[in-house]
Design goal:
The chain is α+β, with helices and mostly antiparallel strands. The chain has 3 domains: 2-60; 68-117, no CATH class; 126-171. The protein has helices spanning 8-26, 34-60, 112-117, 126-138, 141-152, 158-171; strands at 68-70, 76-89, 92-103, 109-110. The two termini are 37 Å apart.
Length: 179
């Protein structure tokens, strides 16, 4: 499977061609007002960021390591199925397919690609959680979701944003958040 994966150089060449076409399509024939320039650059930038993130996530694959792998308890974890996980990152929302393994000896589940990507049990990236925690220091928790959408184009439910902001506030009660 890994042998079929394109090289970094091939990916860069393919994305460069793709982005060239996007720019030809989206850039206006005339410069326009500053507001129009901001709108088109924001739109193009968002599409490019999303595509690069998707490509890098795809590069990791599903984390499938064969029908069984060694568990940290010393037992054997067996491949069970592929599970989808929703992710909300600074580039937007996506979902990935992840190989899931289960060890009958200790009863624990294992998702190799989650380890490689540094994912937690939640759906948000570290970058999103940092932004939510910072906003939670400045605006009421109930408004964090709205402000995150307006300022960053990141959409979370108010409950998810509230939980993240509250966790950030408890972690740094002085109101100072580390970047």
């Amino acid at each position: 499977m890994a042998q079929d994966r394109e090289s970094k150089e091939e990916m860069v060449d393919r994305l460069t061609r793709q982005f060239r076409e996007l720019l030809k399509k989206k850039l206006p024939d005339e410069p326009g007002t500053l507001e129009e320039i901001e709108r088109v650059t924001e739109e193009i930038g968002s599409e490019i960021k999303r595509e690069i993130e998707d490509e890098c996530l795809d590069w990791h694959g599903s984390g499938y390591c064969g029908t069984q792998i060694r568990c940290s308890c010393g037992g054997v974890s067996k491949f069970k199925n592929y599970n989808r996980k929703r992710l909300v990152s600074l580039c937007g929302e996506t979902s990935i397919s992840r190989a899931y393994y289960h060890c009958s000896s200790c009863g624990k589940g294992y998702v190799p690609v989650d380890i490689k990507l540094g994912l937690t049990s939640g759906c948000t990236s570290t970058g999103v959680r940092k932004k939510v925690a910072r906003l939670g220091a400045w605006v009421p928790f109930g408004e964090v979701s709205l402000e995150l959408g307006e300022l960053c184009g990141i959409h979370l439910s108010s409950n998810t944003a509230w939980r993240i902001a509250a966790d950030g506030w408890r972690a740094y009660p002085s109101g100072t958040f580390r970047s």
